[in-house]
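::Amino acid chain::
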Amino acid sequence: MSTENTSQSGYMLLFVGMDWQKGLSPEQTQKVSEEWMAWSKRLTEEGKAVAGHPLSVEGKSVSGKNRTVTDGPFAETKEAIGGYFMLDVGTIEEAVAIAQQCPGLPYGAKVEVRPVLSNCPLERANKIEEAFAVAQ
C-alpha cells in the first residue's frame, strides 16, 4: 500500500544518536564518515536530498509559559538528533528505503522518517470548527 505525498511537502530523515561511532577505531570512523558523505552526495545529485546538515550537541531550550531558556538539549546522546536530510520524494516507502541505506545503521544510528506537512494541523482543525459553527 503506497502512501502518496499529497498533504506533505516532502519527508525528513532525522538521524537519532550522536555516539554511533563509539567503539570504532579512527580508521573505521573515517570509513563510515566517507560512506555517509558519498550517500549524501548521491542523494543530492539525484535530486532526492534537497537539504541536510549535522547538528551541534550544543544549544538552548526554550520552554514554559515564562519562556525559560536553559542550556541544552540534554537528551541522552543515544536519543539526541544528530542531523537531518530533507527529502523530495513522493512516498513514505521511498523515504524509508533511503533511510535503510544509512551507513550509520550497523553502528547504532537510528533514522526517523517523518512527513513534512504543508500546513499546520491546528489550522485545519480550526477551519473544521469554524465550518461546524457556521452550519449550526
About this structure: The CA atoms of residues 5 and 83 lie 23 Å apart. Helices lie at 26-45, 92-99, 121-135.
